[in-house]
Predict the 3D structure of the following.
Amino acid sequence: MKEEVEGEVGWIDRQWAVEDFTRHQDWKSARYRNEWRVMQFGNGWDLSVFHQYLRPKRNAVVPWTGLSAQGPGPAFELRATPHVDLELLEFIKSPGIVRGRQLLTDGPRYFPYRYRLRAPELGMDVWSEPWVDAPAHQLPIEYWTGPVSLTGTLFDAPVTGFGFDERSLPRIHGHEIAEALRLTVEHTDGLAPETKALLAYRAWEVESLALRDTAAAHAHVTAHVQPLLADLPEAARNRVTAIVRDLVGVLASRRRLP
């Protein structure tokens, strides 16, 4: 089949698997969710990084999770490794404009935004910069995929490139939003080191409590997190307060969702 196209950037949706993973899903895809990051670099290397999460087990990473890569011609060398370190630098809330038919919740939903990915076996350390804040698509489940710019190193040499960042794992539970808060704080610029450390630690406490006792987690965030917000610089305060407000609301509702 041939189709006329225009432009200078292309993307191949390539999925290799022994069997279709959807055979292990339920009708709402509440059991497994994934994040898939495709990268194409100026040196000719094409990478696919897949993370599969088991939601009932606190989003445990399960096989197959890892990186596969194909080099430029004429050799088209193939490489693969499960040893990848994904660092989520920032989260962004779904504006709720695009809605799937089988959403896990009607409450707030946070998705990873910027990320850093490292793979020691490939001498890789890459940072992403999204082109679109909330690239939602109207599929049955929560589903975002959009373009990113990439900079960093591959095989210990500088590289730049483009990619796509696919996300179907929204952070909706109290412990998940508390984790989003903690990671956001850890990577927020303009905070004094002691302020950043204390706020991130308090968020981690809420994250842990929310797994066992929602009421205790709610009490802890109101008593030990909210009072810290007033002294933050304005830009950081606005960013962090929005997540804390949603966290308080989710914990107060005491919802227990799939």
Remarks:
- The chain has a mean pLDDT of 91.
- The longest strand covers residues 60-70.
- The radius of gyration is 20 Å.
- The CA atoms of residues 131 and 222 lie 35 Å apart.
